[in-house]
Amino acid sequence: MDRAMLERGFRYAVALAGDPVVADDLLQEGWLRVRRAGGPASSVPYLLRAIRSAWLDGRRGASRGLVDLVEHDGVVGPEAERLIEADALWAGLLTLSPIQREVLFLHLVEGWTTAEIGERTGTPTNTVQSHLRRGRESLQAWLTAEAAK
User: Fold this and answer.
1) In Å, how far are 4, 28, 52, 54, 92 from 34, measured between CA atoms?
2) DSSP string of 65-132?
3) 69 occurs within a structural domain
């Protein structure tokens, strides 16, 4: 498994969990599942499927909640502005349902088609399209409302 594959797996885990610390655990668990199952070490879809399974297993019985954003005290200048913008976008993503975050991530970041997302998550394509549309609309509405504040 190469570094790029691990980074993709981590980004996907963050999109699912909404927390980089939990994402670390999901990535490790996903990798262990791939290895235990004797799966291909170079297959991104196989790793992402294992991460998703670990995430779903962890969600069973767990309550939903939003992750607190990390404060960037003491940072000044353009870097602070980028961090604040990233936090604002992340806060907007956290207002979406987990499935909407997942679909947006897989489509916009990983470049998967709605058919590929549906096939790999076991969700009908029209449902994926609906989640994608609603997620985009919700995120746009939230960002517009935040910009007006």
Assistant:
1) 17, 10, 12, 11, 32
2) -PPPPPP-TT--SHHHHHHHHHHHHHHHHHTS-HHHHHHHIIIIIS---HHHHHHHHT--HHHHHHHH
3) no
Span 67-87, average pLDDT: 44
**pLDDT value, residue 84:** 45
Domain assignment of residue 32, given as a range: 3-59
In 3D space, the residue among 57, 47, 71 whose CA is nearest the CA of residue 17 turns out to be 57
Question: How confident is the model over 96-106, as pLDDT tens digits?
Answer: 888 898 898 88
Q: What is the CATH number of the domain that holds 94?
A: 1.10.10.10
Sequence-distant (6+) residues with CB within 8 A of 65 are none
Residue 19, in any domain of the structure: yes
How far, rounded to the nearest angstrom, does the alpha carbon of residue 117 sit from its chain's CA centroid?
A: 13
The answer to whether the beta carbons of residues 66 and 24 sit under 8 Å apart is no
